Amino acid sequence: MAGGNRRSVLNQFSRTKLLLGDEGVKNLENAHVAVFGIGGVGSFTVDALVRSGVGTLTIVDDDKICLTNLNRQLIANRNTVGKNKVEVARDMALAINPKIKINIMQTFFGEETAEQFDFKSFDYVVDAIDTVSAKLLLVEKCEKSNTPIICCMGAGNKLDPTQFEISDIYKTSVCPLARVMRNELRKRGIKKLKVLYSKEKPMTPIEDEKNSCRHNCICPPDTKRTCNIRRQIPGSIAFVPSVAGLIIAGEVIKDIAFNK
Question: What is the mean pLDDT of the chain?
Fold first, then answer.
């Protein structure tokens, strides 16, 4: 009888509780995290947050899954190509934890849509988007609402995931995106920002007209932001953005669980 009682209290987060304790798991259950960008980095972040017991998620992305996403995005497979990323991510989350509250917003975050978001309702924000202007706006909104945020710097054109580090933006080096962000944040008077960045020098993509998405875009029909309008098409691989996404999720989980 006693053994049966012990077994009855076990659940999918029992192993997590061994590390975080009752209070840590409860903190995650009560938390609302927003993830902006559900690509190579963001899809792995969402997965880890769900599996760790975050109670409420808001996920934001306007893209559909493309065939070229299969090499690095957790939500991408042959059955999901052409589907909306946020809808596939939602279904994935609910299949892992049916009790999670999940809000999806199929929109591109920018000046025209920023007012749709109540940043004070978020306990934490993850920036996994790839547009500098949108990243800066997201940081400004979080700064104004005093909402914790962690930003992913450049994960494209990299092959060494061991060179990722968590740092303040003003202590970063090597990463070109971090350099741009530092300069722009300084102009805006933002004095600190938690980021994930890599000290690996970016590679130059081996691109020609045959393998270029810019010349041979195969985005699904009705995709609003095709490869043709992107400033740069970075090279990517399975084991770099996935590691970045998991590191970011780990920071969010630990910060929330231990009230940092």
Answer: 93
